[in-house]
Design brief:
By secondary structure, the chain is mainly β. It has a single domain (20-190), classed as Lipid/polyisoprenoid-binding, YceI-like (Lipocalin, Beta Barrel), CATH 2.40.128.110. Helices cover 13% and strands 53% of the residues. It has 2 helices and 11 strands, in the order αββββββαβββββ. It has helices at 2-19, 81-88; strands at residues 21-26, 32-39, 42-48, 51-58, 66-72, 76-77, 100-112, 115-124, 127-142, 149-160, 176-190. Strands 1-4-5-7-8-9-10-11 form an 8-stranded antiparallel barrel.
């Protein structure tokens, strides 16, 4: 009887723990990645139009969260077609060989109320570096469609493009800065488990 009670307790705890874990899928229509980089003296903005990914959330303990994201590098846009084509070329991102960039988290550490330092591996142009992104959770609630649940996130990070071999031609010299400020705004939809028949 005692053994049965122990097994029942363990099973209950397991079910309770798993019930708190939710998977959210990025909504591409309401998610974006923007960046700024110095050109001579001014800051030039840009964006990647296509981003996908998932966030696995433990509402009881965000330090157990995980996130994976993929960026379609060919979707880069700086509102200048000539410049965008140059960014896609072998001088910069070389999208023919490296069409995507990816991020996969390894740890979430609480930094402030609703803010976490998320450390993980970022891969751009075949180069992988461990970085720390500052992530703010913006909340959870009902979506536009009945019965849906969404979550909101904002992530920021500073990168050096030279760390990922996105150097550009030498002729540019110091015209283009090395430091890039990246901001991701993500709305993600709760993925509901399939109905068991």
């Amino acid at each position: 009887m005692k053994r049965f009670f122990v097994l029942f307790t363990l099973l209950t705890l397991t079910l309770t723990a798993s019930a708190a874990v939710e998977t959210y899928k990025f909504d591409p229509a309401h998610s974006s990645i923007t960046f700024t980089i110095r050109h001579v003296f001014s800051q030039v903005p840009g964006a990647f139009a296509k981003i996908s990914g998932t966030v696995v959330v433990d509402r009881d303990d965000f330090t157990k969260n995980t996130v994976e994201a993929t960026i379609d590098i060919a979707s880069v846009s700086t509102n200048n077609e000539k410049r965008d084509n140059h960014l896609r070329s072998g001088d910069f991102f070389d999208v023919a060989k490296f069409p995507t960039a990816t991020f996969k988290s390894k740890s979430w550490v609480k930094a402030d109320d609703d803010v976490y330092d998320v450390t993980g591996d970022l891969t751009i142009k075949g180069v992988t570096k461990t970085i720390t992104i500052h992530v703010m959770t913006l909340g959870f609630g009902p979506g536009m469609a009945p019965g849906t649940t969404v979550s909101g996130w904002r992530a920021t990070v500073g990168l050096k493009r030279s760390d990922f071999s996105v150097n550009g031609p030498a002729v540019l010299g110091k015209t283009v800065g090395d430091d890039v400020v990246v901001t991701a705004d993500v709305e993600a939809d709760l993925v509901k488990p399939a109905v068991q028949k």
